[in-house]
Design brief:
- The protein has 141 residues and is mainly beta.
- It has a single domain, classed as Porin, CATH 2.40.160.110.
- It has strands at residues 17-21, 28-37, 44-53, 57-68, 83-88, 93-97, 100-104, 108-112, 115-119, 122-124, 136-140.
- Strands 1, 2, 3, 4, 5 and 6 form a six-stranded antiparallel β-sheet that branches. The chain has a three-stranded mixed β-sheet with strand order 10-7-11, with no helix packed on it.
Length: 141
């Protein structure tokens, strides 16, 4: 049995539901989960951005996605109820001081053994729990 590899882009829509988990101490792992309906409206896809905080700065330490291979996005693909999990760990992307917004327009690609995750038009802001300073902004291109 042969398998044909195909590339297909799945974009997180602007109206996705966003939830977050924060560590109690202000240092450790933050997780931002975006959930949205598949184009067929039958299932939910998820994408997680995992941030690591040192207390004075933060960075993206991992990316995870759980994508259903629905027939509208993946025509002639696998079973529409088949779930593809992609995980990229041990990253240190976009390190930024706490309470400074990070904006990056340039695309960044990270590869996993079963897929690729790319980031573009990214804006992230992590506020320190005990910090009361005003928020600054930086942009990298």
């Amino acid at each position: 049995m042969s398998h044909e590899q195909r590339n297909q882009t799945v974009t997180v829509p602007e109206d996705s539901v966003v939830q977050g988990q924060c560590p109690d101490s202000g240092t450790g792992e933050y997780r931002i989960r975006m959930t949205w309906r598949t184009p067929s409206k039958e299932r939910n896809n998820e994408a997680d951005v995992i941030l690591q905080s040192t207390g004075s700065s933060y960075y993206i330490s991992g990316l995870e996605a759980a994508i259903f291979l629905d027939n509208l996005t993946f025509p002639d693909g696998a079973d529409p109820y088949s779930l593809q999990n992609i995980s990229v760990t041990d990253l240190k992307l976009y390190e930024t001081p706490i309470s400074v917004q990070r904006t990056c327009d340039r695309e960044k690609r990270e590869y996993a053994n079963n897929g690729e995750i790319s980031l573009s038009n990214l804006e992230i802001l992590v506020l320190g729990i005990k910090h009361t300073a005003s928020i600054g902004s930086k942009s990298w291109r």
